[in-house]
Amino acid sequence: MTTQKFGMIRHFLNDGRAVPVQTKPFTRQLTFATSHHTQKVTIGNDTGYKNVKVFPVTAKAAVYRVAIELVKGMKQPLVKRRKYRRQRRNRLI
Question: For a disulfide at 65, which of 22, 35, 36, 55, Cβ 3.0-4.6 Å?
Fold first, then answer.
């Protein structure tokens, strides 16, 4: 589960009860056993023409966001490649 209590996490790091995993996003792993609280998370997605966004959402806020930018103009390189391939095949005769 995510937290906004960064002071508590800083104390856990100083006491050795948590270890750093990543800096972006801010991720730390606890080294002690905790109670098994879970929260409902649903997956939201926004499929657009140029951008696709995927994000898990809880009842309060989005947990994580991923934005993927799709490639535009893919037809031109394929047409050019097809043209050159046809030229090579026709030269073999």
Answer: 55
DSSP code for 4: S
Residues ≥6 apart with Cβ < 8 Å to 28: 9, 12, 13, 18, 19, 20, 21
Tell me how many helices (H) and strands (E) the chain has. 2, 5
Domain spans of the chain, in order of start = 1-35, 39-93
pTM of the model: 0.44
